[in-house]
Design brief:
Elements lengths: L18 H10 L3 H16 L7 H15 L2
Helix pairs in contact: 2-3
């Protein structure tokens, strides 16, 4: 659902490189500010993106999702 690059038709595994490190951060505590910083570091640097690129919305959604599935 989240596509920070905004290019349609990307391979489904385009962002797989963030799954494990993101889950590790969620397990340590789902703090949205830390998730946003992680996204800045990984996605921002790897793709050269600046600005919001939907990271705040994504961080909120992923934290809500993680809290629900880890009950």
């Amino acid at each position: 659902e989240w596509n920070p690059v905004g290019v349609p038709g990307l391979p489904p595994d385009e962002y797989d490189f963030i799954i494990e490190p993101l889950l590790a951060r969620l397990r340590r505590g789902c703090i949205e500010e830390f998730i946003i910083k992680f996204l800045d570091d990984r996605v921002g640097n790897d793709f050269g993106l600046t600005g919001d690129f939907g990271k705040k919305t994504f961080a909120t959604k992923v934290c809500v999702w993680y809290r629900e599935v880890s009950r």
